[in-house]
Write a structure and sequence with these properties.
Layout: E1 2-8, H1 19-35, E2 41-50, E3 55-62, H2 65-75, H3 77-80, E4 82-88, H4 91-99
Antiparallel strand pairs: 1-3, 1-4, 2-3
């Protein structure tokens, strides 16, 4: 199942401006990779940043949102950001479902 993880932080906690946040951020990708199996993350499909919006967007293929929540706590994402976990679909799958209605 695909999920979008939207993590928003305030400008004062931005890794570009805050030394502690920068340290956490620089370790996040490695921590996600190291704990993928533990939190049933099948694949990280993308990890994007919008610097001026102070938002990270991570696209994951995972078993469920509860495991992603625990992963966000464990790797430190929730230390500096408010996190929203949203189930998403590939556009082709959504179009196929629409055609079958």
């Amino acid at each position: 199942m695909l999920f979008g993880v939207f993590a928003v932080h305030s400008p004062d906690l931005c890794p570009m401006n805050n030394k502690n946040s920068r340290k956490i951020f620089l370790e996040i990708q490695g921590k996600i990779k190291a704990t993928q199996k533990k939190f049933h993350i099948t694949k990280v499909l993308g990890f994007y940043m919008s610097v001026l919006e102070h938002e990270w967007i991570i696209i994951l293929d995972a078993k469920n949102a509860h495991d992603i929540e625990q992963m966000c706590i464990h790797v430190g994402i929730s230390t500096t950001s408010t996190v929203k976990i949203v189930p998403i679909n590939d556009i082709q799958k959504a179009m196929k479902n629409m055609r079958s209605i």
